[in-house]
Amino acid sequence: MDWLLRDLLFSLRTLRKDRASLFLSLLALALGVGSTTAMFSVIDNILLEPWPYVDGNRLSVIEIHDSTSNEPYGRTFFSQPEFAELQKHSHIFRDIIAAHPDRVLWMHGSTPESLQSTLVSGNAFQVLGVAPLMGRFLLPVDAKPGAPAVFAMSYKMWQAKFFGSRDLLGKTFTFDGKPTTLIGIMPPRFTYFGADVWQPRDVNPAETAASAPFFLLTGHLKPELTLKTAQPDIALVVQQLSKAYPKNYPKKFDVRVISLTDMVVGQFRRTLYLLLGAVGLLLLIACANVANLLLAKATAREKELAVRSSLGAGKWQIVRLLLTESMLLALVGAALGVILAWAELHVLVAILPVDTFPSEAHISLNGRVLVAATVLAALTAILFGLAPALGLFASNLNEPLKAGGRGNSGFRRGRLRNLLIIGEVALSLILLTAAGLMMRSFFLMRQADLGFRPERMVTTQIRLAGNNYRTAEKQALFGEELTTRLRALPGVLNVTAAVDFPPFGGIDTDFEVPGKTHTQTWKGQMAFCDPQFFPTVGMRVLRGRLLTPADITGKRKVAVVNQQLARRFFPGEDPIGRQIKLLGLEQAPEPIPNPTFEIVGVVSDIKNHGLREAVVPQTYSPLTLSSYGIYIVFIRTISNPATLTKALDGTVLAMDRNLLPQQTNTVEESINQYELAQPRFGLEMFSAFAAIGLLLVSVGVYSVVSYTVSQQLREIGIRMALGGTGTDIRNWVLRSGMRFILIGIFCGFAIAFVLLRLLKSEISGINAADPITLVFVIVLLACVGFLACCVPALRATRVDPATALRLE
Predict the structure, then answer these.
(1) Mapping DSSP to helix (H, G, I), strand (E, B) and coil, where does residue 580 land?
(2) What is the β-pairing status of strands 172-175 and 93-108?
(3) Is the pLDDT of residue 407 over 50?
(4) Which of 64, 92, 158, 721 has the fewest beta carbons closer than 10 A?
(5) Can you tell me the distance from the alpha carbon of 281 to that of 39, in angstroms, rounded to the nearest whole number?
(6) How far is residue 117 from each of residues 83, 100, 120, 156, measured CA to CA in Å?
């Protein structure tokens, strides 16, 4: 191993001689390896190992997907009779647990507070297999009817509300007016369903009331099964259930078994993998950059390597020396990259959009990530270290000694350096185009016409539970009194209550129009509101009339429809006075038999399916017709709506001490959180990677053109001695450099045309071949390349011909 020590010591001395090249190489490697390591850390902790639970990666759920719908998601919650049948007849799961997210009102002293609660089956904590931090976890006996009311508390709530007090176990809390005893505190990573508290709940198939909860079925997939092979078995059981409970199933559906990770992460998985691909391109740019620097350095060392060869060193020994230098450079760059990744992770965690990954995930540089960084360092060393080594095998090492001191004829690496620059430019164009497309898409989303005015409007949800609000009529009476009181608050322009939330929409339903036949299912949404909904939100009546107080009190089966519904279901016809059937009301908490409504008005379209999707058909009917247990209150204000939060809470509590507004937020903040956060994250990450790539390309172009000029001093001297002017020399250098940049742009454009189709799910309003974006990126790259060529070109014009010829 003496040779290795000698090679390492010599490599250290060699690298220290050219500190500028060493700095640029380490900077490129640190940026490339650091960004890749940080991105892999996110993917590892979110997609590969997010769960602290026993066999967490085999936790799976059942999804019922409507075959006629374009929606990527389906139903994953089941009624208690359905759940019991699935639990009894399913053979694909080793263990099955039930969970139902809910909210409870915690009365501590005279102050109520809304907490996120999750009802779980008695075996849930045993199946998940995480020991409590203090006390005990929930047991099956705790879920039996008549058992004492107990609960477990999250670590986050324990720290935030009680500062880690160890005297808390055994104390009684009042949840929804019921005394409940704390029996355990869970560790930090146990955040199942993001709950503050967990309460046991028996799954009772005999409970068929409209208010009975639906449960998410989560099971440990048996070891011998995969998600794909498990589907036929469960599909047979579900097909039988669809016959017993037809109202719970679409006419055409398919059954899917998906991992719990996929259910939580959803489409964000694709975003993360695209970002990993982007950072991989960045790493390739960094490797090409370092390879070019090493090629230039190897050319400057031609005589040294030729002398080594003449003294008996074989090509393999010299290649070994060059690869040792590359490996040493890669390891130092990787070490710096890990430090950079640690800093980048803090930024990534801060900007990750909420509700797109499991709250249990702990994003950090763990052992697997560090091993991956080490392997990455070795791979990068091979990638950029092979360039000078391959050049060595293709050369005659004795040529520099015959060259009479010219020193640049032994290695013919100009073509390889130029190919690397072309590759860097092409990869950079792909990154810049992706960032540009996402930027254009994001700004188009922000400027999308919502059809209503979101500014100065605050929303809150009120869950109406208990015997006082069992019917739609009682809920409507509460809503009427509440809106009347809220209108009296200072600064309030208007108030309305609805079961709808633009731009996210209302309740999904299928439609039928008597007398009209159609082959495809007519899908859309239905909303229930009071007459003030339209002026408060800012919708215009286009035909007919709006809802009236008489419609509300008389519980009339009338509907106001949006323009999209009128256009799609009644093309070229007047819909006023026509009938429409809302099939979704047959499965409402208070089912309506024969839910046929008379259309009395048409209103302007508003976004009701998110910002990216087109408006879907929608109806608006009286709030008194059906109870869904949740009211969404909209308040339009004169000034900042956030100042109304305390007054809103006080008004509700004055009406009922067991109610409290939940998820109070402005409409603009809700849009930012649920619609713009994920595309903003993708935009920020792609832009950062593209900016780093552009920086590396500019450095690479500058270093190669600068090196080429230094190696061509004799030719420059001859040109100037024969009458060439400074302008001629400058233009010659610029043409030489820009030629490869333009070739790189052309190659990158051809590759981008194919690869950028993968961004289809990440952009909206434009396509991957958006001409504005492509032209901007091409001009930007050309300008940066031109500027990178300008400095060495100007330096070439200052060459003294006599001095250059004497040096040669």
Answers:
(1) strand
(2) antiparallel
(3) no
(4) 721
(5) 13
(6) 20, 9, 10, 13
Structural element, H or E, at residue 591: none
Calpha distance 751→304 (Å, rounded):
40
Q: How far apart are CA 665 and CA 673, in angstroms?
A: 10
* Banded pLDDT at 308 (limits 50, 70, 90): low
Inter-residue contact 31 to 696 (CB < 8 Å): yes
| Token output for 116 | 């996120």
d(CA 405, CA 690): 43
| Cβ–Cβ under 8 Å, residues 575 and 584 | no
Tokens of 737: 């450099």
For the record, the structure tokens of 244 come out as 């017993």
Task: Tokens 């849930």: give the residue.
Answer: 124
pLDDT higher than threshold 60 for residue 278: yes
Is the pLDDT reported for residue 736 higher than 90? no
**Which of the residue ranges 559-568, 606-615, 766-775, 780-789 has the most confident prediction, judged by mean pLDDT?**
559-568
**Cβ-contact 217, 62 below 8 angstroms:** yes
Three-state DSSP state, 589:
coil
What DSSP element (H or E) covers 401? helix 399-402
Rounded (5°) CA angle 227-231-235: 155
Q: Two tokens at 108?
A: 């501590």
Task: Report whether pLDDT(15) > 70.
Answer: no
Four-residue CA torsion sign, 613, 616, 622, 624: negative
Q: By the 8 A CB rule, do 46 and 272 touch?
A: yes
| Exposed e or buried b per residue across 580-614, where buried means at least 16 C-beta atoms within 10 angstroms of its C-beta | bbbbbbbbbeeebeebbbebbbbbbbbbbbbbbee
The pTM for the full model equals 0.85
- DSSP H/E element including 256: strand 253-259
Q: Where are the alpha helices (DSSP H) in 135-179?
A: 155-162
Closest CA to 363 of 351, 375, 376, 379: 351
Q: Can you tell me whether residue 92 is helix, strand or coil?
A: coil
- Separation in Å, CA 451 to CA 181, 343, 502, 517: 49, 42, 10, 31
Q: E strands along 28-76, which residues?
A: 59-66
**pLDDT attached to residue 406:** 45
Question: pLDDT at residue 430 above 80?
Answer: yes
